Amino acid sequence: MIRKLFAGMMLCVLVLMQVLPVQAGALEPRACPKDLKYLLGLYYGNGEQFVIRERGGELELLYRTTREDYKFANSNQFPLKKERFDAYKLLEAGPMNNTEASVRFERDPEGYGITCKIGGNRYSRMFFGTDRGKPFRLPQPEDWPNLRKAAAKAVMPAALASGEQAKLVDVVKVAPGVKLDLRYAGTDNCFAAAIVDVNKAYLDQEAAAALARVQKRLADYGYGLVIWEAYRPWSVSKLAYDAFPDDKKQMLPAPEQGFSHNTGRSVDVSLYYLDSGEAVEMISDFDEPSARQYTSFGGGTELERYQRDLLQQLMSIEGFQGIDMEWWHFDYAPQVQYRHLNVALQDLD
Q1: Which residues share a beta bridge with 152?
Q2: Does 28 participate in catalysis according to the annotation?
Q3: Is 107 within 8 Å of 114 (Cβ atoms)?
Q4: Is 270 helix (H, G, I), strand (E, B) or coil?
Q5: Backbone angles phi, psi at 167, to 5 degrees
Q6: Distance of alpha carbon 346 from its chain centroid, rounded?
Q7: 34-127 sits in which CATH class?
Q8: CB-CB neighbours of 44 under 10 Å
Q9: What are the DSSP calls for 102-170, one per residue?
Q10: Per-residue buried b or exposed e for 187-213, using 16+ beta carbons within 10 Å of the residue's own CB
């Protein structure tokens, strides 16, 4: 009887450890040393791909066993034991069929790892935009003015106007401490051009109130929220879709489908440090088309994974639901259908 009771108690403890957030400030990992961080990333060659990540100040190799594991979430993990500068030993036998294989990195003049040699095999690094300060950018449309005029005159499909209607509010008035870095109101986005001209974030009042609660929870961990995008009028979504090259339009929902941001119940967020006010360098950039954008991507640094997962956990507690494809995107109570809106930002407030 006592054994069963003890076993039940332990089960409850394990379940709670999975559900409840980490105690504030208790287990936050240390920042990854810069010399190691410059080696982290995706390497490929010989029909194989693997990720080099950091955990506890050490390097690990994640080797995926199936091509479907594009997030490297269920990959085999191989610790690398450092021998000397950029020279390591693979500590375990694995899919590369080489127990205790030597591992050697080569760097470019700026210090970034560019190749990884394992045994007799050589692998090249696949760089993503922000790895070298070159974020993802699309070719500039030839005629922005005409695209803007056409989008502004377009009529939203009637089918998108069904459901409850959001009561849009200015988020910073409801959620003190939340910062704005509205990417589409400036040039730091995939278009390298502003597609909205109002530097304010609006959300449904329920979603904004929930975001305020997340802000309070994050304060216990030393972080605050940064909003990258909130409510977007339907016409702006159409403009974005029309501005995308034809071979990349599948990355966005078509105008007739609508976009969750049109409802006022979706938000894209990141983190900043409360003590300095500086933005956190997260595991990927906003709208970065790479494996790092996925919520369960296994690479990066231990601190980056911790910060991303903390954001996911606290947003979830307050009623937001994340999506697998973009760690920064959240929908508030998505089980309730809300109509898409085409109210211009200039007409709000």
Answers
A1: none
A2: no
A3: yes
A4: strand
A5: -105, 95
A6: 29
A7: mainly beta
A8: 13
A9: EEEEEE-TTS-EEEEEETTEEEEEE--GGGGT----PPPPS-HHHHHHHHHHPPPPGGGG-SB---EEE
A10: eebbbeebbbeeebbbbbebbbbbbbe
Return the SS3 of 50: strand
Two tokens at 218? 């994050």
For residue 89, the model assigns a pLDDT of 94
Give residue for tokens 């091509």.
Answer: 67
Q: Which of 175, 273, 263, 173 is nearest to 222 (CA)?
A: 273
**What's the gap between Cα 84 and its chain centre?**
34
Pairing of strands 58-63, 48-55: antiparallel
**How far apart, in whole angstroms, are the C-alpha atoms of residue 343 and residue 235?**
9
E-only strand ranges, the chain: 41-45, 48-55, 58-63, 76-84, 87-90, 102-107, 113-118, 121-126, 168-170, 179-180, 202-204, 223-229, 266-273, 320-322, 329-332
Say how far apart CA 107 and CA 117 lie, in whole Å. Answer: 12
Give me the catalytic one of 48, 206, 281, 326: 326
Predicted pLDDT of residue 14: 38
Cα–Cα distance measured from residue 264 to residue 241, given in angstroms and rounded to the nearest whole number: 19
Which sequence spans correspond to the domains of the chain?
34-127, 144-347
Point out the residues of the chain with pLDDT beneath 70.
Answer: 1-26, 92-99
- Please tell me the predicted confidence (pLDDT) of residue 244: 94
**pTM score, two decimals?**
0.90
Architecture of domain 144-347 in this structure: 2-Layer Sandwich (3.30)
Please give the single-letter amino acid code of residue 127: F
Q: Which tokens sit at 341? A: 């809106």
In the structure encoding, which two tokens stand for residue 270, read together? Answer: 């990141």
